[in-house]
Amino acid sequence: GENVEQHPSTLSVQEGDSAVIKCTYSDSASNYFPWYKQELGKRPQLIIDIRSNVGEKKDQRIAVTLNKTAKHFSLHITETQPEDSAVYFCAASNTGGFKTIFGAGTRLFVKA
Amino acid sequence: GAVVSQHPSWVICKSGTSVKIECRSLDFQATTMFWYRQFPKQSLMLMATSNEGSKATYEQGVEKDKFLINHASLTLSTLTVTSAHPEDSSFYICSAARDRVYEQYFGPGTRLTVT
After folding, report:
1. Which residue of A46, B69, B73, B108 is most buried, as measured by CB atoms within 10 A?
2. How far off is chain B from A26, nearest CA to CA, in Å?
């Protein structure tokens, strides 16, 4: 079945450094790739997303890249801050079937 | 815009009883609502997808007779956990999507503890 793999499971960086989280997906029909940030006990919040007709998207300190051929997409956070510490989930969906598959999550720690 | 509420935020019940969780889209009409289950330090596992006015589509391994989903209107979906057992204890999160729109908007979640 459809699968989304996410790496690393844990990431610790120093404040100000960059953080990169990578995901791969299996369903070639996937065409929408959102990234969510979830703080402990709270709901996932959409932070950025990308559609299959775009290779890169940036929003201030956050950027996402997509390689459809390789079925890879990545989240890049620059100039990390302690408040970026959270669990980040990538996801892939096929809007035709409207089913979203989530990655296992990456726990990001930003040390001050 | 795009606010989703969930009620209750937490509930404790005894084994064998049933619990109903409500998911509401407050400022938009949700053609599709999703129900997820999340165990501590784990990812979101899709349980079922519901479209207004039709039967929910359950994921493999999810018992439809145990997790009853009703999507009676464009702003309300309910999940009823029937004959709850301790292993049903989990964080249940709903999300809602507008028609022909990619984004899902998540509710705040319901923490269910079955004793």
Report:
1. B69
2. 17
